[in-house]
Amino acid sequence: MVTEALRTDDELMASLGRGDGASLGELVQRYQAPLVGYLTGIVHDADRAKDLAQETFLKIYRHAGVYRTTSRFTTWLFHIARNVARDELRARRRRPQLCSSDEQVIDATAAAQDTQVEALERREVVLRALGQLAARDRVLIVLRDLQGCSYEEIAERTGLALGTVKSGLNRARQRFAERVAELD
Question: Which CATH number fits the domain that encloses residue 16?
Fold first, then answer.
């Protein structure tokens, strides 16, 4: 028998889809902190990010019956969170500013929120483009461009020759740029 602590995300979702609410608690325990951090980076408000994380988990609960294991659970979870955050940013743009009569402050706030929405949309394109790359290309880009690893560290971590890392990274970046251009 599989214990609760060792169940995979897919097993927890299947259990949740059958009505086992305790499975949601395990998913919340696993993903609450990273999800709040992700949402805080988007909405720039830690308290609101906590609320949005709860909203995301509520959507997970409501849609557990339609969850399919064709993609990773975390991909689905963060996709839902991204949509919740996007809705929040759009709602902020529509809300009137009650505290300020200064039109410049209102204009600056609206511009900042527009920038946040654009950044969120750009982030979504980047994530989708990364997701479309072959695993090796994705690993090379993540290690070098996101984690800042040196070529030598990448070679050591991946077991590839240094020259292969350099040329592979160049080709991976080209493929990534093509995917981004297709998605834009």
Answer: 1.10.1740.10
